[in-house]
Every structure is written in structure tokens, then in C-alpha cells.
Amino acid sequence: MGISNKVSEIKEKLSELGQDHILNFYSELNKAEHEGLLKQIQSIDLNEFQSQVDRLVLANEKDADLDWDALKPADYIPLPENGGDTALWEQAKAKGEKAIKEGRVAAFTVAGGQGTRLGYEGPKGTFSITPLSDKSLFEVFANKITRASERYGVRIPWFIMTSEINHEATIEAFEANNYFGMPKESLFFFSQALFPAVDLNGKMLLEEKGQCVMTPNGHGGSLRALVDSGAIEKMRSEGIDILSYFQVDNPLVPCIDPAFIGFHILNQSELSSKMIPKAYPLEKVGVFCQYEGSNLVVEYSDMPEAMQEQLDEEGGILFRSGSVAIHLFDRDFIERVGSTSSEDKLPYHKALKKIPFINASGVREVPEKANGVKFEMFVFDALSKANNPVIVEGLRNDNFSPVKNAEGIDSPESCQNDLLKQAIRWLKAVGVEVASNSESLEAKDFPFEINYRFAMDKDDFINQWNSLSDKPSIQSGTIIE
Ligand code: UTP
Questions:
Q1: What is the CATH number of domain 70-404?
Q2: What is the per-residue pLDDT for 3?
Q3: Which residues does ligand 1 sit against, CB inside 6 Å?
């Protein structure tokens, strides 16, 4: 088709949807910009886009329209120390270890977000997090995966989802650091799709005169991206049927968790999730609930405060199961939910944002308050579509300390303190008391590290430590590796 036919076809479609204003500056653009804009518009499924605008912006449909009286806390498998069956946990661990050794498990990091709250330039995974060795988040995960590969005698692949915004920079960071010691063939990078952002009247926004504002389509976009990128095919050809999902901002996560994997297999689960008990009723985490026969995650911002504060018969928090974005996905389930033709597609949600844009006079405006909407899919929405979903309790201290904000709660400082506390606990488990005040130590006063390349979890640390003929003394500045 000739370029002018293509333009008039696109223009017609856009005007049918009331979005043709994005071509207002078309005559001012040069050839390369023309092509860029047309290519960008063609990458958008305009019907899908407009139906989300109609539903979420123009009709202002609410995200959570639940009958709150029908909502119950989700069932979960408690830890042995909280009443769980020790023998069952051991059985699960053995089952998980067997699957890992058989090469059925790969790691998967979603790293396509924009990380605006942290305010760090560059892919979030390249942010330095360890207090002494200055390792990036990516390197911490690479160390954990490498150690798991070594421990179980198997090459564990690592799938990493980026977005167009940080894809090149992510790959460059891996190349510049020799893939953080991992074999290149173990790594598979792919980008998630972008989705147009709109103003409060549902009109597409321009970033430049020849470029629409497009943002990553949420961590839920990972399921589609896994299918579209060929990652699922690669998994199939390598005999991998379980994907261990975690977020790029949580260095405390066990990338490969044998007992969790074992429960997933024992229950023939299509999607398993870690829960940690909420630290306090109004903690800002989503909550695993049961609703109309399915499990789902209700966002803290949607759940009425009185429900968040409700207690059970023993005086504990009733809706206690905090969702911390740690999951195991069955490969065939991803394929089912992630295919564009699927009936089981994840829904989009909207988020109000401050979005700089080119106004009708062609001048760039930087708004001071929210002026637009971005659309995202949430990965946990897959929960209600999964067969036999399982929720397994994890210790917060060994699972979750995200780096979201530059300061305060969920910041690099709080995360470094949690990494230190974990190292102190692991040492305690082998009878080493780091200091008399070890409970209150902070990373800035007493930096020391256990390299996850040495041990991937507490059990592993105990074995590794006991096998050391020359055990190091632990002081400020020590790195056990
Ligand atoms: P967040 O919800 O914290 O978003 O992502 P973010 O974009 O990283 O940070 P803010 O909100 O702008 O400060 C949680 C995880 O999901 C990934 C992120 O990279 C992070 O690992 N994510 C988020 C994606 O991979 N794609 C997205 O579109 C959104």
C-alpha cells in the first residue's frame, strides 16, 4: 500500500474513534518522523485501546465493584512455625528440589516499569543495592540464580522482561558486566508492549509532534509478552514448565524456592503465590481474598478501611494475606492467558498521572497535577483464571523488602537494613552472634554482606558455612563469599 493510502486509512480509523488530533502536526513532520508516527500508530490495537478508554475513562468504570459482604480471606498453606504441617513442608521441598534438578524451572524478572518513585535514571535493575560491594539489583539476582544452578547441578535460565524505554540500556548493562557471571545462553531478554496514555477526556496525548505518549502496559503485560516474544516456545523446547516470577525491585526474594515450587507441583497449580502476613492492618499491600469461588487480590486502596482492620477470632488481622508479587506460573497457563485471542485476557486498570504533553498549539506542557490516564494490566488478575491456585506463606524477612521510594519506607536504606538482618539471622543459625546488639544494627553502622553466590537461602548457608574449613570472623566490612 502506498504511503498516502496508508495515511488516509489510519486517519479514517482515528477520526472514527475521535483520535485524529494526533495527526494535527503531521504536515510539519519530516519523512522519518512521518514513518515513525505511522509505525507507532500501527503498533496499537486501536479497537482494544478505544474500548479501554470508553470503559475506564469515559464511563469511569470502577476497578473494584465487589459485593464486599461476599468477600472472604483466601486459604493459604501456613509455615510450620505458624501451624503448618512440617512433614508436608519437607515433602514439598523435596518435590521442588527434584523439579529444579530436572531442569523444569526458570527464573523470570519483570523489569519493564518506569521506577518513577525511586527517581533513578536508568533501568531500575542497575540500581546499586548492596552496602559494601555496590552490586546492582540485577547482579544480586544473577548471584542467587547462579548459586541455585550450582547447588542443583543444572543450568537455570533467566527470562527478563524490559520495556522499549529501558531495553537497550538493560542489555548494555548486562554486556558491560559480563552477564554478571551467567552464561549468555541462559539469558533471554524481551520487551513488553506499550499502550497509549490519554488525557482526562480520553484523548491520546502527544509526547512530540510526531510521537504519541506510550507507557508500559503493566506487569500483567508480561504474560502476553512471554507468548509474543517466543519465550514460551523457548521454555517448551528446553523442557521448562515452571516460571518463578519476581519483581526487579525486591532483592530479598528467593529467586528459586524449592518448597514453594514443591507445593505448586503437589497441588497441580497453574499459578501459585507467596503471601506474607500483613505487618499492620492498613499496610499498603494487596490482599489475597476469596470471592465467588475464586481467589483474587484486592488492592489496599479498594478495600474499605473497616475491613482491613477487621480481626479474626484469635485477634489476628482477618484479611492478613499480603500479596508480595512472588508467583510461580505454569507454562501452559501463561500461553492460555497471554494469547491475544484468549478469552481469559487480563483486564486493564487505569492510573491517574502527571503526563507532559504537546498542547493544541504545539507547545510542550509539564502539568502540576494529574492530567492524564495510563493503562496497566496487573499480573495478579491472572489468579482468578487459574486452576488449583495455591497460596503459600513466606517469612517477610526472607522474601520481601522492595526498593520503591528514594527515602523512608521501602527505600534503599530500609532494604539494606533488611539484607543485613537476613545475614545476621543466617549467622545466628550457625551459632555466630555478630554483635550483642545485632537486632538493632543498621547497614550504615555495620556494613557486612553474605554474597548470594555463596548461599541462596538459610539452609544453603548452614551447609556452606559448615563446609568452610577456614571460617571468617565477622566484622564491619566483611563479605562472606
Ligand atoms: P511498580 O508497580 O512498582 O512500578 O512495579 P514501577 O514502574 O517499577 O515504579 P513506579 O510506580 O513508577 O515508581 C513493580 C514491578 O513491576 C514491573 C516493575 O519493573 C517492577 O519490577 N513493571 C511494572 C513492569 O515490568 N512493567 C510495567 O508496565 C509496570
A1: 3.90.550.10
A2: 63
A3: 110-117, 124, 161, 192, 216-219, 221, 247-249, 376, 404
